[in-house]
TrEMBL record:
It comes from the Bacteria. The keyword Nucleotide-binding does not apply. This is CoA-transferase family III. Keywords: Transferase. Belongs to the CoA-transferase III family. It comes from Geodermatophilus amargosae. SUPFAM superfamilies: CoA-transferase family III (CaiB/BaiF) (SSF89796). The lineage of its organism: Bacteria, Bacillati, Actinomycetota, Actinomycetes, Geodermatophilales.
Amino acid sequence: MSRAAAGADVPGPLAGLKVVDLSTVFAAPYMCSLLSDLGAEVVKVEPPSKLDQTRGGALAPALGNEGGGDGWNWSGSFHSLNRGKRSLVLDLKQEAGRSVLRRLVDAADLVVENFTPRVLRGWGMTHADLVTTNPGLIMLSNTGYGATGPWSGFKAQGTSLESTMGLVEYSGYPGDKPRKVGQSYPDFLAAWTGLYAILAALQERHRSGRGQWIDLGMYQLGPVVIPEALIAAQAGVRQPSRRGNAEDDTLLSDVFACRGVEAWVAVAIEDDAARERVVGLVREHLSGDAPDLDELARGLGEWTASRTPEEAAETLQGHGVAAAAVAEVRDLLLDPQMQHRQFFDWVDIKGVTRPIPGTPFVWTGSTAVTSRARGPLFGEDNDVVLGSVGLAPEEIETLRRDAVVTDAPLNIPPPRAKDLDALVKAGVYREIATDVDDVLARVRPGADEG
């Protein structure tokens, strides 16, 4: 099935850039998908006996929740994080697999990986090793704590990583325990940081002809987003207390319940002028003409309770107050602003068309930036990629015979369909929507035509 992007006949700004993606999960794969959006040719190298966590497992919600068969090809997360790439399945535990990888790297401009540092050292494939045959090679290594220092060999996972960054201590509610920040927050900080480091390395190579090794430790990204806490610490002030939804630069910031089930509106009253406008708007719900912030919050909550989130947000915005409905994820599919900016990409996955998150910016110019392509099916491009590095058909067949290259996962059972009713009872999901097809039909491109 073709993965050709809309407008693919127009080259992107990174057209001709060859990228080898050895990474898994979120941060580095997303980084490489953005490079693909910009026109780079990205080959994702996958092992035959262990699926990327976004292909299989808890991080791989299957479109349609159908078990059996080739369920590893149906993960929405995988397609979003690996859009536009090619898939080469290669057993790097075998020397023959590493030999193929070296040929691929020798023809590449960039390698992105997130192994623990010992892995590439053990294979003799560090950046220092690889530049002996490809002097202009750029490599980005994305690890939890960096490739050097006493923590370089530590395992990193979302909650533990955020905790060592200082973010978890800074998040939560007064009197309660520290809270995880959110969905893979450090991963996406790493993706965007890595992207600009790669672009800088490309510029340096253009100037000097030399490649670069970018050692990106995600641990160091946390303090970047809490500079006020670091400055306070240098002034002898302990960590700011956990404040829930409150913000330092607003008089009142919180979410308020609205009419409906799990319906909320977020409101930020930034200054005295905004405060007076809100007082005038909700005056009938206040006791007294000069309410303090607690009384204003109570009265505002009474006012929002009789309105939908959208009604409350629109009215507050009309009075010059920052407010927005708290969106459920499915609301994003129906969001008119998202639709206007064509954020979601409708991609064809084996005859089934579904929307996935696309490029997070709009590009206008003579070159194309587009992500209108799905991720690769498992091993879909084996022959094309192997042929591109000069392997003859009989050599490729030998690699298949020795299970160095495979077209399906080895010794991995097909994913099972999830018991959605049980997950609702366990509180993992709130409810099972029965109108998904109707929602998709409403937002499908061209649905309002004719």
